[in-house]
Design brief:
Elements: H1 11-22, H2 27-42, E1 56-60, H3 65-74, E2 83-85, E3 92-97, E4 103-108, H4 112-119, H5 126-136, H6 139-142, E5 143-148, E6 164-166, E7 173-175, E8 180-182, E9 185-187, H7 204-216
Helix pairs in contact: 1-2, 1-3, 2-3, 2-5, 4-5
Length: 217
């Protein structure tokens, strides 16, 4: 059984497509699909993959199953620069209509986990119960919705890179104004001490550059 939704989206179809992309059907997929349908409706988007595809930006706050569902339903992605990943660890997403400026943040309610068992008490596995319950629970039971204001930076918008800048440290190029200026140098984030990795071995480019300097020296 799947609850009828107030908007024009085909929940069953969207859920099937999302599960296919994600690789399996789970409670997170159901939440992500429902969350997206609600968010899109609230910002006035009815055809996210058609006429409205250039009018949407989504900020996801979790790197979990639901994010794949949000991408599947909205058509937004990191590659298109229409999906932004905010590493908050929260089951939440903000949907922005770039045309009108309207934005809503949709947050999964924590108490919906316990309510799911009330809907399907005969299902022993709590995750299986959540999967089925999330299909039929109301939006009000599943989510809190807040109207918010989001102003994307120019360098975060879709389109070609505004500029490419060479890092004075490693020589690699930085796009979209992510460089850092420090003590008269232009640095990428790793060279400025903000990287997620540490270098254990020189890159092939660095080895080649060192060899060239030795040969010309």
């Amino acid at each position: 059984m799947i609850r009828e939704n107030q908007n024009s989206f085909d929940f069953a179809k969207l859920l099937t497509e999302s599960a296919k992309i994600h690789g399996h059907l789970c409670a997170g997929q159901v939440l992500g699909v429902r969350m997206s349908m609600l968010g899109l409706r609230e910002i006035g988007i009815s055809d996210p993959r058609g006429k409205d595809r250039k009018s949407i930006m989504v900020y996801v706050e979790m790197d979990r199953c639901a994010t794949d569902a949000v991408q599947s339903v909205t058509g937004c992605s990191l590659g298109h620069r229409t999906m932004k990943f905010m590493d908050y660890g929260k089951m939440a997403a903000t949907f922005l209509n770039l045309r009108t400026g309207r934005a809503v943040r949709v947050v999964a309610r924590e108490d919906s986990r316990n309510k799911a068992k009330e809907y399907f008490p005969a299902i022993a596995d709590k995750y299986a119960a959540q999967l089925e319950a999330y299909k039929v629970m109301s939006d009000e039971e599943l989510f809190d919705v807040m109207q918010v204001k989001v102003t994307p930076r120019t360098e975060d918008m879709p389109g070609r890179p505004l500029r490419r800048t060479r890092c004075d440290g490693c020589g690699e190029y930085v796009q979209d104004m992510r460089e850092i200026y420090r003590e008269g140098k232009v640095l990428c984030k790793p060279c400025a001490g903000e990287g997620y990795y540490t270098t254990e071995k020189a890159s092939t480019a660095e080895v080649a550059e060192t060899a060239e300097k030795e040969n010309t020296g």
